[in-house]
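Entry 14. Two folds queued back to back today. First construct below, sequence then structure tokens.
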Amino acid sequence: MTSNFQLHLPGVTLPTIRRISWRQPFSWLSAGLDDVKANPGPSLAYGLLFAIGGDLIMLAALRHPYLLTVAVSGFFLVAPLLAAGLYELSRQTGRGRKIMFIDSLRCYQRNGQSLALFGLVIGLAAIFWERFSAIAFALLGDSSGADASVFLGRILLSGEHGTFVVTWFVAGGLLALFVFALSVVSVPLMLDRDSDFVTAMATSLQAFLNNAGPLLLWAALIVFLTLLGFATLLFGLVVIMPILGHASWHAYRELVE
């Protein structure tokens, strides 16, 4: 079943978006796990890179509390672009082909300009969030050199900064939701059909608007599983991120005709 809702952009023709059910996000996870099993070496290599990179960022931000929060939240913003190699693995698996890890990296050369421009949009969102967080935490006093867990624990658990905590979470949630709506199918579409980044983001936004309920569930699953990976000092991401990356490809395939 296709939707009747269409965004209208001058000179841009968007693909048709299918309607999906609430059960689809769980089937995407199952398909993602199947793709990991079909490509264990390359898939887990991406997961290991996610885990190592995340650990290095976390270690660097431990003495700067606001940077720690930005690092965790920023991870969600840039993950769709970093997972492009996983999309390529799923794309080739669907065609009955097996490729190596190094071969999957070549996807960044295909439609590279659009990917770079999309990355710029995501980067600007991340910079905005970093500056907003820096100013917000600065209003609470000097936290330089403070242990991040102690400082954040005092803010979240003391009850003295309830308004700040609510405002920060609401602002971060709205930004993350906006970026999610723009990116849910953007990178797979650019890789699969050489779409320009404006068409890809508009298609992604249309997919979100037409399937807000199921895609909000999908976003919640992504957040829950990613935070579960963070709770294991990011080593759980070695498996979780490949599953989510492959699942995102299957989400694109079912959403976009």
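Second construct, same run, same settings:
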Amino acid sequence: MIRGWDIRLGTTGDITLDAARRAEALGIDSIIAGDHVTFHGYGNDALITLTAIATVTEQAELKTGVYLLPLRHPVPVALQCAQLDQLSAGRLVLGIGIGGEDPHEFTSCGVDPRTRGARANEAIEILKRLWAEDGVTYEGRQFQLDDVTVYPKPMRSVPVFVGGRSDAALRRAGRLGDGYTGIWQSLDRFQQAQELITEAATAAGRDPADVELGMQFWTSVADSRDEARAVVAEGMEGTYRLPFERFEKYTPYGTAREVAELIARYVEAGARHINLIATQATPEEAVERTAEVRQTLHELFA
């Protein structure tokens, strides 16, 4: 994950784009952008960030991790994703989530936070139809469309990866997702998630193998575990305003090998993509440390 720009916090657009160039040069597979509109006052539009990154990269997958789809109407989102997918020559993966940790973010956007799951479900259905069809009519409880066509269309139907921890998120992934990205899950819960996704996919008449499984981890890499813990704890507490101890058992930190060894257990359990939120002093260091973890993982499975 590459941090979006905010001059107030000392990150310029040039810093973000330089980090993206460096990530691709180091062979990192995907560049990920986080998303919020006003999470405790802070925002970063993932699609805008990735649009800028698309112009300075050529091969890396561009992924939102995760885009708060319930905060938006799906028709403009369909257009924005299609334009970005064409700009990047088919590299966009739309990772979506429903958020909710800051209910004020939803009310600020005129959205009842109690409807966020239902809005996400309907929006995914609408996006997939708008990317493939013309004259879409849709009658849902949250959204209604009457003969809507959106051009340009993406180069392919943009893969939608569902993020989350709840059973509802797992059912959403099984019924509607092309992938699933877990976060803050024990290994046992990740394995249970696979079973629930399989059940939901099968019930929907889908092949469970069509849902790619993965995990997203906050992390920090340093020469010692104590140093790494201090950095990632500060980053997570500053973001979520909760004690780090709430997240610690799900958070790999330490040397690159220590981080990779914990993540490897999830890979062995079926994870096919790993998103890292590397909490380091600078975006450049985050990219460099992520590349170290990636290389170590490859060595572990060589």
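Quick look at the second one. The longest helix spans residues 283-300. The first strand starts at residue 30 and ends at 33.
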